Amino acid sequence: MRYRRLALLILLMFMTACGRATGQTSPQTITSAYIQNKGSDTIVNLALAWAEQYQAEHPEISISVTGGGSGTGIAALLNKTVDIANASRQMQAEEIQKAQASGFEPVEFVIARDAIGVIVNPANPVGQLTMQQVSDIYSGRINNWSQVGGRDWPIVRLSREVNSGTHVYFRDTVIRLGDKNNKTLFATDTLLLPSSEGIVSEIRLNPNAIGYDGLGYIPSDLKTVALARDATSPYVLPSITSVNDKSYPVARDLYMYTAGQPTGAVKAYLDWVVSPEAQTIVANLGFVPILK
Amino acid sequence: MNRSLSWGETLITAVVKTCGYSAIVFVLLIFFFLLREGLPTLAEVKFGELFSTRWYPIEDHFGILPLVTGSIIVTVGAMLVAIPFGIGTAVFLSEIAPRWMREILKPLVELLGGLPSVVLGFLGILLLAPFLRNFLNLPTGLTALAGALLLGGIAVPTTVSIAEDALDSVPQGYREGALALGATKWQTIWRVTLPAARSGVLTALMLGIGRTIGETMAVMMVTGNAPVMAVKFSSIFSPVRTMTATIAAEMGEVANGSTYYHVLFFIGLVLFLISLVVNIIASSVVFKSKSRAERVLS
C-alpha cells in the first residue's frame, strides 16, 4: 500500500520535473558559489544528502553542512556566519527580534515534515488511541492495556533516551499535549532505550510494549497505532497524506531560514530543495515530503 | 664493559620505576580530574535534590539515588551468580577434573572472558530477556535480573581463571596431609585447600566485582534503563538504570561545563569511591588472612 503510493508520488514527481525543465536556466548563469548550512541534528542527514546530490548536479556550487542543533544554527545565522540555518522548530520571537536588530528579516522555508508514530506489537489488539490516552499511558496513569480496550496485559512503556530530540518532541506534544504549563513527566518506570533499534526489537518480542519512533524508522512488521486529537476526532494513521493535510496530530515541520530574501546560488538551492526531485530524498530518509 | 653494564642497569631501573610510579600518578590524575569536574555539583545542586529519587536531568531533576540503587542491585545480583559459579568451576578445574579435561576447559573459560560485552548484550536482548519474560511471566524481560545474569556471566571467566591459579599454587603436601589424616575429598577442598588459597580467591572475586560494577555496554542494553528506586527485593524483576549506563548514554550530548555535565562527573566520582571502598575492604581482608596464616606457621 505504502509502496504503491510512493511509486505514484515518484511518477508524479517525474512528470512535474519534466514540465519544469524548460524554464530552469537561471542556476546555469551562476559561475561558482559556496553555501554554508548549519543547524538541527534531526535535519543534518537530510541536508547532507541534499547537498551531495545538488553538488553532483552543479559542480560549480559547494555546500558545507554541519549539525549542532537548531539553536546553534539560528545563532550562526544571526551572526551572519552561515547562509542557511536548519531548524526543527520555528524561530522564537526573541530570535526574530535579534535578527531585526542586526538589520535583516529572517525568511522561513518549510523544507520537509517529520511524523512520530506510536507503535505496538502486532499481537496487541489495540489499534487506536486518543492523544489523552497516550499521554496517560506514558505518565503512568494507565498501566494496563484493558483500560484502553485491550487485553489484560501490563503496559511496558518504551522511550528514546533523554538526549534525543524525538524524546523532547514527544514529551511536549503528546505527554504534555502541547501545553507549555503542563509539567507532566514520563513515568519513572519508562524504559529508556539508547537507540531506535532497541525500541523496535523490544516491541517485536514483547506484546506488552508500546513505543514511538520517527515514521521512517518504523519497520512494516510492527503495528502503528491510529491517533485521534480527542475522543470526538477521527483516528488517523501517520502517512504522507495525513501529515500533509495536518489530520495526523504528532507531526512537525522542518525549516530552513535565511537572512533576508535569498538571492543567487542560495535561492537556486532552496528552490531545488522543495522541488520534487529533492523531496524524493526526503521520503527515502524516512521524513515526510511536502506536497504543494 | 663494567661501565656500560651499570649504565644499562641505571636506565632499566629508571624505566621500570617510571612505569611503576606512572600507575599511581595516573590514578591520582584521574581522581583529581573527577574531583574538579564533579565537585561543582555540590554548589550547583541542592543536597536534598541530589539525593532525591527523581532522575530527569533535562528538566533539572538530578536525583542520583535511583542510579546508585540500580547499580548496587545489579552488582549484588551478579555477584550472587558469579561467586558460586566462579569458585565452583575453579575448584572443579583445579581439584576434581582430570588433567586432560582441565587442559581443554580452562582455555575455553578464558576464551569466554574475551567475548566483547556488546555481543553478550545482543544475546541478552534477543534470547535472555524474552526467555525471562516468558519463564517468570514478567511484563518485560529487560530487568535488573537480566543485567545481573549477564554480568555474572561476564565476571565468571575472570574469577575462574585467577581463583584456579590460586588453588593450583597450594602445595600438594597440604592436600596429602589432610587426606592422610582421614579427611574426605570434600573436607580437604573445603577445610584445607580453599582456606589456604584464600587471598588469591578473594582477589579473583574482587576483580570479578570490579569488572561487574564498571561494565557498561551489556548493562545498558538489557536493564531497560528506567530510573526507578530499586530498594525492594522485587526490584530485581523490574527495569533499573545503572550509573555507568547513565554516564555512557548521556555524556555525548551534554553541554560542556553545565550543571548536568558536572552531575554526570559527580556520578563518576561516586562510582570511583564505591570501587575504592570495595578494594580497601578486600585488601584488608586479604592482609588479615595473611597475618593469621603467618601466625599459624610460626
Structural description of this entry:
In chain A, strands 1, 2, 3, 4, 5, 6, 7, 8, 9 and 10 form a ten-stranded mixed β-sheet that branches. Chain A has helices at 2-20, 41-57, 70-78, 93-101, 131-139, 165-175, 196-205, 240-244, 264-273, 276-284, and strands spanning 33-39, 61-66, 84-87, 106-120, 128-130, 156-160, 191-193, 209-214, 223-228, 251-259. Chain A starts with a helix and ends in an 8-residue tail after the last helix. With 292 residues, chain A is α/β, with parallel strands linked by helices. Chain B has 298 residues and is mainly α. Chain B has a single domain, classed as MetI-like fold, CATH 1.10.3720. Chain B contains 13 helices and two strands, in the order αααββαααααααααα. A two-stranded antiparallel ribbon of chain B has the order 1-2. The two termini of chain B are 46 Å apart. Chain A binds chain B through residues 153-156, 161-163, 168, 183, 185-186, 188-194, 198, 201-202, 205-206, 208-209, and chain B through 54, 56-59, 61, 66, 125-126, 129-130, 133, 139-142, 220-221, 224-229, 238-239, 241, 249-250, 252-254.
Write a brief structural summary.
With 292 residues, chain A is of the alpha/beta class. In chain A, 37% of the residues lie in helices and 22% in strands.
Task: Supply the key terms.
heterodimer; A: 292 residues; alpha/beta; B: 298 residues; MetI-like fold; two-stranded antiparallel sheet; 77% helix
SS-derived structural category of chain A = alpha/beta
Q: In CATH terms, what is the fold-level topology of chain B?
A: MetI-like fold
Specify the CATH architecture of chain B.
Orthogonal Bundle
Order of helices and strands of chain A: HEHEHEHEEHEHEHEEHEHH
Lateral strand order in the biggest sheet of chain B: 1-2
What form of chain B results from the Cα inertia axes? globular
Largest β sheet strand count, sense and barrel closure of chain A: 10 strands, mixed
- pLDDT < 50 runs, ≥5 residues of chain B: none
The termini of chain A sit apart by 22 Å
Q: Helicity range of the residues of chain B?
A: over 70%
Kindly report the average pLDDT value of chain B: 87
What's the CATH first level of chain B?
Answer: Mainly Alpha
Number of domains of chain B: 1
